[in-house]
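Board notes (copied after class):
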Amino acid sequence: MTLKAKIKPAAGFSRIVHFLLLVLLPLLVFVFVRLRFYELAATLILLSKWRMLAVKPRHWPANIRANGVDITVSLSFLIFMMNSSSQMLQLVWTMLFMGWLIVLKPRSDQISVALQAFAAQALGISALLTQWGDASLYVLVPATWIICYAAARHFLTAYDEPLTKFLSTLWAYFAAALMWLLGHWLLFYGVVAQPTLLLTVVSLGLASIYYLDTNDKLSYGLKRQVLFVTTAVVVIVIVFSDWGDKAV
């Protein structure tokens, strides 16, 4: 069973303190970014997850997996702040970081968990390619595997899925293989990289089918529609991409 070392004060003074700490973390990260103390900002984010290791060492791997999505999203916001061209844009990322910590992250219903997983995958891959897009595929492929495995496993935790580990590994393998292939022609549509777009579209389609089927809402016609739209978007992206050795 996955262990989650999480403290959620119910009410009173402790809840106020907890809320203030959630607000303070993005603000401190913003200040460190402005001062160009990037390593210190990353350390602060990791230290905020100290409860993962406040248990016996045998529980550490489970806690790290359980917090993988939060760590991915938090570090992604840091990378976006680092690469922002203006202070105003950095403040926008700071506010979104707060929204993640205060609004979305604490929720545990199926839709919210799905949104958390999608956010981790999309932001994580985007941040990876923004910061290390020129890195070797020996870096990009394993990093993609880790990000997508954490996102898929997080998504499946909202369901009584006996094949969680297998399905998460399968999706991570597909994502890593796609990164290995597309990494040879790393294309950008504005600020969105092609691997990010394709993985988001495919995962959204598969997750929609899984959610509808699990909740007995999936008809044959609806399944065909979702698959058709997903396939159409993928085909359009592939066909109309400039496959020259350049970004678009």
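Comment from the instructor: The chain has two domains: 1-106, 108-248. Confidence is low (pLDDT under 50) at residues 1-7.
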